[in-house]
Queue: 2 jobs
Job 1
Amino acid sequence: MRRRITDTSRYLSYVLRHAPGAIGLTLDREGWADIDDLIASARQAGHTLDPRVIRAVVEGNDKQRFALSVCGQRIRAVQGHSTDAVTIQREPALPPERLFHGTATRFLDSILVEGLRPGIRHHVHLSEDIAAAAQVGQRHGTPVVLTIQSRQMHQQGYAFYLADNGVWLTGPIPKTFITT
Ligand code: HQG
């Protein structure tokens, strides 16, 4: 079961965040997909999804990456999108004094010149705690955690959003707000 949960979680991340069109799935602007449509589109693309496994992925996910609608008929990724099909409307939020961004040492030179960029995603992702940021960085190589002066940015007009799973989101971060 664990293996199926991991596989399904990866697959859902791919189609719900990045490439719904790859399986002919339509998401609304808020990122929601009808679960029956999702299962049917996946099947046509040669991938079998089990509704019980989908539910287990949503409920058991370590990072709460996905959410079900109140009626239980729809599913979405709560953050991390790159697809242009989705623009989740979020209320701007007041960030804490500092937030943390985990990255890899090999990106440092570039980041300290260019600042942090969202890359293919819609936002730069930030964590409230250093350990969580270090785990994010580890995905890319030897991790390093950068400190972001988030309250100062906010005071200067930069918008911040808090995703339902506690990940902070913002736009590009100029280097002046970043310390190693
Ligand atoms: C780096 C995971 C060079 C940036 C995590 C990062 C997160 C630059 C990489 C979520 C740069 C992009 C997002 C610059 C940024 N020069 N490198 N100017 N600006 N970078 O995966 O933040 O497990 O798109 O530091 O938990 O690593 O998928 O972003 O290393 O919340 O749910 O470019 O993905 O969530 O990598 O991760 P990513 P991320 P899930």
Note: Residues 13, 63, 65, 80, 103-104, 107, 110-111, 114, 116-117, 119, 121, 125, 136, 139-140, 167 surround HQG (CB under 6 Å).
Job 2
Amino acid sequence: MIMKPIQPKKITLRKLQMKLKQPFTTSFGTQTEKEFCILEVEDKNGNIGWGESGALTFPGYNEETTITNQHILEDFLIPSILGNSYDHPDQFNQQISYIRRNRMAKSTVETAIWDLYAKNNGVPLYKVLGGEKKDIKVGVSIGIKDSIKELLETIEEKMDKGFHKIKVKIKPGKDVEVIREIRKVFPDIPLMADANSAYTLKDIDLLKQLDQFNLLMIEQPLEHDDIIHHSKLQKQIETPICLDESICSYEDAKNAIELGSCKIINIKIGRVGGHSESIKIHNLCKEHNIPVWCGGMLEAGIGRAHNIAITSLSQFLIPGDTGPSQQYWHEDIIQPEVEVKNGIVQLPSGNGIGYTVDKEKVKKYTVYEKQFTVS
Ligand code: OSB
Ligand code: MG
């Protein structure tokens, strides 16, 4: 199939503020709401592509924030794409490689370009990304709770809903004993723990104790930018290590696999700079028999839709954190909202991301808006 190029003509940057249904606590902090950038990119044919940034308002997950995203988008990324023509979305990455890091900001544009590209060619996004699966098994990420009772109740509720993987957040003081309590009540559920970089190699004895609980994996136990210590740790524990924060690019993934720093990779589109880089990492992992899954950043509908599209690729073998809109939001900004039935989300069949962005809802949550056009 010959694909038509795209020419972005008009771009609208918005910052949205949405309250989370419940606070979400990780080892680096608690979030009660999200303020994030979304991008609407229109081409000369009137097609519209949408992108969303996963960045948080504080640099606790990675170095980016909503405000740094805004700066990089307004002052560098948006001006550099307006008026250009792209035969393929990959060209965007080559063009902006002069901008160092800021991958979540880049991903906001890059994913919008992919959506636009798919729409301009009248095909679903997941198909242009190379996806095949239409039914996606979904897991759930549960934040740190005040009490074990509350955590166990939440797990029970999620298992009843049919989620295929339970991920719990851990931090020093809320780790081995918490997992022990979970395993007493739920000896066999597919369970994993995410530490968000809360430990160091000094904690090796504690991390070894987790081996007895038959976890699917432990996610990002050590430093956010490390692959060396993780390689040392993986040689001493049986629980497979899954890297999240440490993998920001194809090169990072290659090095981590070569060093044996992980047995699984969590691909977050924003963290690695977009779909093109996600596909490269996916293909590398497939070559090396490393299963991947799609993590989340508590995204609203646009980000969620992009996550669902990428999980259609074949090496996404483990259920991801691509839960339903209702898990996070009182109302989402897309129509229909993302629904999960029996732990399965179905790829929408429409063009591009396949969900319609609800302009009224977007307006309701917008706290900042700026338009850019070709001069
Ligand atoms: O480490 O995966 C993480 C949320 C914010 C920042 C980091 C992480 C998370 C989650 C939630 O685990 C995933 C989701 O359901 O969106
Ligand atoms: Mg994580």
Note: The longest helix spans residues 103-120.
